[in-house]
Each structure stands twice: as C-alpha cells, then as structure tokens.
Amino acid sequence: MLTLRQKFSYGICRFGTTILLNVVFLVTFWMYNSDTVDLDPMLNGIGNAVGKLVIGLSSFFFGFLSDSLSSSTAKYGRRKLFIWIGAPLLGLSFTMLFIPHFIIPDGSQTGLFLWLLIWNSLFHFFYGFLLTPYQSWLPELTKPEERVGVSAIMNVTNLVGGAVGAGFSLLMAGVIQESGGVIGNAAIILLSFAIIFSVVEVAMFIPALVTIKEKHVATEKKNIWKELKVALKNKNYVVWMISYAILSIGVTLMSALLLDFVHEVLGLNTTLDNFIFAVLMFVAMVIGFYTWSVVSKKRGIKISLIISFCFLLVWMPLTPLVGKIPLIPPAIQGYIFGFFAIFAISAVFLFPYVIIADIADKDEKDTSVNRSGVYTGFKAIPTNIAQAGGFLLVGYLLSQGTNFDIKWIGPVVTVFLVIALPIMLLGDYDLFKKKPKEKVLEIDSEN
C-alpha cells in the first residue's frame, strides 16, 4: 500500500509529459505546415507518422525489457532506471523539435523534413522509453482497491497537463498568427516555453523517484514472443486495442487539424479568441472527467464508454453546420460545438490507464506472472500505427489537388467511431467490478 504522499508523487509524474505530448500532437504538424516554416504537407505527414511508429516499437520493447529486469539486481530499479534516463532526454528532444527556424535555412525542404523526422522520432522514442516502464509500475505499486484513487490523481494530473498543453497550443497559435509566422518574438516565446516545459517534465518525476521504493519482484528470463502470445490470447485486451486503435485514427485527424479548424471554420484568430476557447475546453474536460467517473462507479467503465461514443456519433457529424446557423454568432457556435465534443471524448482519455492496469493485474492473479510491461507496451503498437496512418491521411488531405474542406472533418472522424464502437462492445472493461450474481451470493452468505 502507498501512503497518500507516495500516491500523489506517482500521480503527478504525468503532468510534464502530458504537456509535452499535447503540444507535439497539436502544434507540430500545424507549425511545420505554417507559411513561415512551410514544409510540404505530405512530407510533414510522413515525418509525424514515423514518430508514431517509433513510439509503438519503443513502448513495446522497453515495456518488455523493464519486465525482464530483476528489481533486486538492477542498481537503479527495473522501472526507475528508465525514468532517470528517459525524462531528461525526452525534454531535450522536445525542445529541439520546435527550433527548426533557428537552424534550417529558409526554404530547405530536405533540411526541414530531416529535422522533423529525426527529432520527432527521438521524442517519441524516449516517450515510450520513459512512459511505458512508468505506467507498468502502477500494478506493482497498488492494489485493485487503491488503483482507482491513484488513477484519479493521474487523471487530474493529465487533465491539468492536457489543459496547459492544449491551452498553450491555442494561445501560441494566436501569437504566431498575429506575428505573421514563427518569427521574431513569437519564435523566442515558443523556444522559452519549450525549455520551461522540458524542465517541468523532468522535475515532476523527482518526488516519485525519491519517495517510492520499488518492491521486490521475482523475475525469470522471459521469451518475448511467449509473453506476447499470452497477452494476445486475452480477449478483452485484444478487443480494447483494436477498437482504441481505430478510434485513434479519428482522434489524430481531429487533433492535427484542430488549430486550422479553429482559425478557418470558427474564425477565432486573435489571442483572446483562442484563450476563451482554451478555457472552455478545460472546463468541458473537467466536467467530463467528473461525469464519467461518477457514471463508471455506478454503471461501469463499459457503459460510460458506450454513452460517450453514442454522443460523439450524433455530435461530430455537425461540423459542416458550425458557423452556418442564423442568428447565432459563428464564434458562439464554435464554442458550443467544441465544449460538447471535448466533454464526450474526455471518456476516451480517462479510462485507458485503468483498463490496461486492470487487465494486467487480472492476468497476474490468474497466471502468477507479471506482464504489465508487455500489456502496457504492446498496445502502443497498433495505436501508434493507427495514429501514423492518421497523420499520413492528414498530409494527403492538405496536399495540393485534394481541395479538402476542413469543415468536413467531423463526418470523416465519425466513420472511425462507427467502426470502433461495435468492436469495443465485445470486451469486458470492469474486471474487478462485482457482478450482480456475486452481490447476491455475498448477501446470502451474510444472512
């Protein structure tokens, strides 16, 4: 059992990494596609797609490797070792990703592409190197009854970090728009915050590294393919991976085009407009996390996901109508649409950590073998392949000759929701929630 201080120390680790990932997800494609950087959209899509493939492979390999290390012989711990090394290198690669305008000569497509390819790949490599062992640590540190509480701290941390990352992205986009590109003060501000966020990311891991000791975990030499086969025989795991990967294509499309949608469709081009939009999105995420937490405790995670998916199926196809409704200012329509879209999709961001941790814990209870690193790491492969496909699709949609109108992004995203929902319904994501029959048996035994 962890003390409250240790739970908090573990949970806040995600604050800095969430900021970094959100900024990379929302800003990288948009910035490299801007008029001043002006990388060809297809090359931009390829550079971002390769990063997603790298994180998938990195997450799986280092998840397995951290599972295989012995906590008694690894000098810095089987999980901590990766945190000590990965945190500073993740921050460095993040900063380098946002300074091509200081290094690469104007108009050099090859130089810009290679810069994006190298630093985006390194960022995602170290993200998998760092985060998979960290997340794989959760089932070893906690018992099922305290895991929801620790996950709640992680989710609040993710919420705040996500709000900071998304809010900064929107505000920075407004500053860049008003400055005429990634030049002058806008470039200096972007670099300054890249350094600040990198320092914060490293600092957030220090309390956990100092206050939490890795418990002894007996390990034996493992065969990666045998371990993977066991995981892939887990129906709930495979169903969740497939449905989440398909959904991730739509989420990638929406995220990569969000800033363009805000500017071109909603007409929010000033820093103030972007600030108001960012605040509303934060409020929507807070309300969404609270709502889905309450619903999941009463009805279960699966019911919460079904409700959120169904709401998105109705809401997302409305993007062609946003700004077109008479008598309501376009900006207000945009605020309302964004609020409810984020409210619904917040369920998708809330539950994945708990679902994977529960699946890994249930497997360990059934087999007496710890595979949390394999479970946590391998699911990144299909998810990030899907995200890579999403970036390639974005690059294609924005290429010359396609004439894609961004207002149709909602119906495109809906296609992936329609495919993902029936697959998601096949899984059980409430493994430690007592079923009605178990409750009846408990009552009978008490009587």
Q: Gist?
A:
77% of the residues lie in helices and 0% in strands.
Topology of this structure?
Layout: H1 4-11, H2 14-33, H3 41-68, H4 80-97, H5 100-103, H6 109-136, H7 138-141, H8 144-179, H9 184-203, H10 206-211, H11 224-232, H12 235-256, H13 258-265, H14 271-299, H15 301-315, H16 330-350, H17 352-367, H18 372-378, H19 380-398, H20 409-424, H21 436-446
Helix pairs in contact: 1-8, 2-3, 2-8, 2-9, 3-6, 3-18, 3-19, 4-6, 4-9, 6-18, 8-9, 8-14, 8-17, 12-19, 12-20, 14-15, 14-16, 15-16, 15-20
Question: Can you walk me through this structure?
Answer:
This protein has 447 residues and is mostly helical. The chain has a single domain, classed as MFS general substrate transporter like domains (Growth Hormone, Chain: A, Up-down Bundle). 77% of the residues lie in helices and 0% in strands. It has 21 helices and no strands. It has helices spanning 4-11, 14-33, 41-68, 80-97, 100-103, 109-136, 138-141, 144-179, 184-203, 206-211, 224-232, 235-256, 258-265, 271-299, 301-315, 330-350, 352-367, 372-378, 380-398, 409-424, 436-446. It is globular and about 60 Å long. Mean pLDDT is 84; it is low at 437-445.
Might you state the CATH topology name?
Growth Hormone, Chain: A
List low-confidence stretches: 437-445
* Major sheet attributes: none
- How many structural domains? 1
Tell me the strand percentage band. under 5%
Assign the structural class, choosing from mainly alpha, mainly beta, alpha/beta, alpha+beta, or little secondary structure. Answer: mainly alpha
Please report the number of helical segments. Answer: 21
Determine the fraction of residues in helical runs and give it as a percent range. over 70%
**Mind telling me the CATH class?**
Mainly Alpha
